[in-house]
Amino acid sequence: MTNSFSTYTKENGGRAILLFLLFGLAIYEFVNAGFSSFAVICISPLIIIAAYVAFRYRMAAFWALFFINYFVQWFSKNEWLPSGIPLSMYNEMLEILLLVIAIIDARRTPHFERTANIMLYALIVWCGFCTLEILNDTCGLGFNFGTWYQGARMMAFQLMYAFLVFIIYVDTTKVLVQYLFIWAGLSLFTVFWTWKQIKLGMTPAESAWLNNVGYTTHILQGGTLIRYFSTHNDAANFGICIASTAVAYFIFAITTNIKKHRIFFLITGIGCTWAMFQSGTRTAMACLILGIIAYVFLSKSAKMAAIVTVVFGFLFCILAFTNIGQGNQQIRRMRTVFDRSDASANVRTINQEAIRKYLMDAPWGMGLGLSAHNTPPNNKFYRLSGTPPDSEYVFIWIHTGVIGITVFIITMLLMLGGACWIVLFRIKSPSLRGIGAGFCCAFISMQLGGYGNQVLMQFPNCLLFYGGLSIVYILPFIEKEWVEYEAKEVAIQEEKKRLKLEQKKASRV
Length: 509
Description:
Order of helices and strands: HHHHHHHHHHEEHHHHHHHHHHH
Distance between the termini: 69 Å
Strand order of the largest sheet: 1-2
Helix content: over 70%
Number of helices: 21
Radius of gyration: 25 Å
Largest sheet: 2 strands, antiparallel
């Protein structure tokens, strides 16, 4: 091989060196300027190699998607990614690649029949409606495919991608268990990074963001209270995501029969709850409470309902009617969620009243992808485009009107209802039912977060929670395999317990 390369360089003179220099220049331009035509052409061999590796090791590509989706905002905030590349492109390229691989492998691993469920049909309706929005010219700006696609991709198509990728690739008990542990591991790293920001300080890029963009919303009470954001783009997104994650892992912990899983999941839930308070996001606490309360209805257990009602009723009374813990700044901020005279809530109400007046003349909304950046100042809806929505549901309402938000709510209820039906009536294994319930309750928690803040379509939430809900639709197909796996793990657990007990008895003799 060495002799061949040496012979090639001797025969071709400086051409080999020139190719290496061009390739190095392409890498440099890609890192510093993002995707240019020159960089794309020169770097295409790496893209081809990456695609080949993904085809050869398909699950590696799936885990890469999960990892990148979880940390892409953190990488971007710390300027660890090439500039000029939309963050959504990383997800979208991997998702499309995974779907192409699945289509090619359809004969060998036919899982597409599992996709035919109520969640797919609901998403088809929502994606179909957003496709029709291309004809919406409420603002009188004419047809703009690029603007429309940018909005439709964020609001609809990424939901379909998440559903298809998860329901196709999370197809066995082994992958499901790996998913639960990897999600927990990433969440615990986020908890650790919160602790690191508090005790050891932030990175230079994080400090710069906090003292500029995030100054008015993340440094409160005269600079004495900092709302930490960890690996997410802001504190609201972080608090709601980590609260919904805590909901899922508390439910996983109390329903599993495998002791080592229970301990790890419980640690994850407790860690996420602690991190939630550090975000100072009031909606996050409501998300945690609603998610746990939702489990009361999915558990089909009067005992569980009584325990949850007593515990959370007690906590609610402490926060709403007492001053216990008032010395802690984060608890004081969380307590304001019960204050109806809160100034922040009043501002949102005023904004929504103004939005409602504008949308009386726009039942289809102002159109997908439109914002203050691409709406002329003399346009009737310019003021609307610049009004902070403060909520994902309000954002959807602005861009798709009363018709769109109605379709969105109905489709969300349909896909959630279908998943809850599976948990209640189709899954017999109590522990597997607990996993399904965890995903459903986390989804409910995140929907409440989307009602209170604009976080539903943010990284990592969309892929994480819509993908998680799609896993529920797979559970009946893998229940037999799950029961066998659990029985094996419990048997090993009991054998270790028996040996430990025998050793204890022998030591007493």
